[in-house]
Amino acid sequence: TLTMQLERPLAVGVLVFNHLGQIVFLQKTDERQTNHSVRLELEELSAGLYFVKIGLENGETRVQRLVISD
């Protein structure tokens, strides 16, 4: 579960992609709130390197590496 606490209420999008740039998970919310909780359903993914991109409706983005191991 990915939990975010924002300074002001904004809608959020969460995108997970693999090292080839293929999207493996996507969830967007239109709800403008300061606290967001997104369950990343990644159980079916193979071991490897992934990237989690969090986008806010104001255009800000953050990208974090995610390593899934066996």
- What's the rounded overall pLDDT mean? 92
Shape: elongated
Strand tally is 6
Distance between termini?
19 Å
In short:
The chain is an all-beta fold and 70 residues long. It is 0% helix and 64% strand. It contains no helices and six strands.
List keywords for this structure.
four-stranded antiparallel sheet; two-stranded antiparallel sheet; 6 strands; 64% strand
Characterise the protein shown here.
The protein has strands at 2-10, 12-18, 23-28, 33-38, 48-56, 61-68. It starts with a strand and ends with a strand. By secondary structure, it is mainly β. The strands form two sheets. Strands 3-2-5-6 form a four-stranded antiparallel beta sheet, with no helix packed on it. A two-stranded antiparallel sheet has the order 1-4. 0% of the residues lie in helices and 64% in strands.
Write the layout of secondary structure elements.
Layout: E1 2-10, E2 12-18, E3 23-28, E4 33-38, E5 48-56, E6 61-68
Antiparallel strand pairs: 1-4, 2-3, 2-5, 5-6
